[in-house]
Specification:
It is built from eight helices and ten strands. It has 377 residues and is of the alpha+beta class. The chain folds into three domains: 128 residues, TATA-Binding Protein, CATH 3.30.310; 138 residues; 63 residues. It is elongated, with a radius of gyration of 32 Å.
């Protein structure tokens, strides 16, 4: 059954995705220092900054991209390969997109790839949502204007890159209640969640702003918002939390809702398909064993191509020889055959027809599909 071109492929279970915006400054310098520190501490095995000549140049006025690759191991034996691309953004900032893939389905208990590429210091502003200028590590208070809140939610959930959580404060909180929910999440979710916080008096306006998304937040509770499009299996009531106690204790029900939402199958976000293809097909940071296997694969590919060319050459040589034989036979028949009148209704097979049939037989042979090699099975 044909697939609509507008239907995006699903996110593989082995893949971790994130994107954001680095504030004004040289993001590549920050990444370089952070990755060097991670390598010294053995948090990662190795990293590579691709030369500018090997990165994808901008086309039709699009800015060029700076690319870093890194690899590390989780659970001691599972290799993770990750790639981050940085491009100039508006207002002097830089947009970044990070794709990581493991050798087995991703576990939220593994370290966040964003936390390995970027430094954890709070004064390094790499953790901004590039669409709505929201923080990935801190609480985002809602605007005072309800219409602006509605517009914020509509733009924030578009694209499907982040998990958006809305928490309503039943009463004014102290320092204990102003701890982001990300603190309690598994490491692999901490840089994928955007937390919105509504003040006590904003409850009515909050639910008005969420009507278009089909979500309502209980007073003093929370909800996980659907992305656009919503993932398969999302039902608003299943991801609504009736009460969140903002007293410094772990919000167990909310953490459970966020974790369950993150496990839902969903399409690749906007722009992620190209980044994932680049990770898989344009990977440079190879181990010695991987480089040897790559060279062996190239040798096998060239040998197969040479064999196909040799077979094609032999077929053409055989056809040429048969054509020469048919032509010689035609010439001999034309010289030796006496001119005799035959009845007009009797078909005569001339030597020229024999020559034509020879070419047709050769044409049929060259058009037959070549049997697949053993390597193709």
């Amino acid at each position: 059954m044909p697939t609509s071109p507008s239907v995006r492929p699903m996110t593989p279970a082995t893949v971790w995705l994130a994107r954001g915006r680095h504030a004004e400054g040289a993001a590549e310098d920050v990444l370089r220092r952070s990755l060097e520190q991670r390598k010294r501490s053995q948090a990662i095995d190795d990293f590579l900054e691709l030369p500018e000549a090997e990165t994808e140049a901008g086309t039709e006025g699009a800015p060029a991209q700076r690319v870093f690759e890194a690899r590390w191991r989780v659970d001691e034996t599972v290799t993770v390969r990750a790639r981050i691309g940085v491009t100039p953004g508006p207002d002097g900032g830089q947009e970044w997109m990070l794709v990581a893939e493991a050798e087995q389905p991703w576990s939220d208990d593994w370290p966040s790839p964003a936390g390995l590429f970027w430094p954890e210091e709070p004064d390094v502003a790499w953790d901004r949502d590039g669409v709505a200028e929201l923080s990935l590590r801190e609480i985002n208070p809602l605007p005072h204007d309800d219409k602006e809140t509605r517009r914020l939610f509509r733009n924030a959930v578009r694209g499907g890159w982040h998990i958006h959580v809305v928490v309503h404060e039943a009463m004014t909180t102290d320092e204990r209640g102003r701890v982001p929910v990300a603190r309690w999440l598994p490491p692999g979710l901490r840089h994928r969640v955007v937390e919105h916080r509504a003040a006590p008096q904003q409850h009515r306006g909050l639910n008005w702003a969420l009507r278009d998304l089909g979500v309502q937040v209980p007073r003093g509770g929370a909800a996980v918002l659907p992305g656009t499009p919503a993932p398969d299996g999302y039902e608003a009531e299943d991801f609504s939390v009736r009460a969140v106690f903002l007293d410094g204790s772990e919000p167990t029900d909310l953490v459970d809702a966020v974790t369950r939402y993150a496990a839902l199958p969903r399409p690749l976000p906007d722009g992620a398909e190209e980044a994932l293809t680049a990770l898989r097909e344009d990977w440079h940071l190879l181990t010695l064993q991987e480089e040897l296997e790559r060279q062996r694969g190239l040798v096998a590919m060239y040998a197969e191509a040479l064999e196909a060319m040799t077979k094609s050459r032999d077929l053409y040589r055989e056809a040429a020889e048969r054509a020469h034989e048919a032509l010689a036979s035609y010439q001999e028949s034309a010289e030796a055959a006496p001119v005799r009148q035959r009845p007009s209704d009797t078909p005569v097979a001339s030597p020229l027809q024999h020559l034509t049939r020879t070419f047709e037989r050769f044409k049929g042979r060259t058009q037959r599909p070549v049997a697949p090699s053993r390597d193709e099975h």
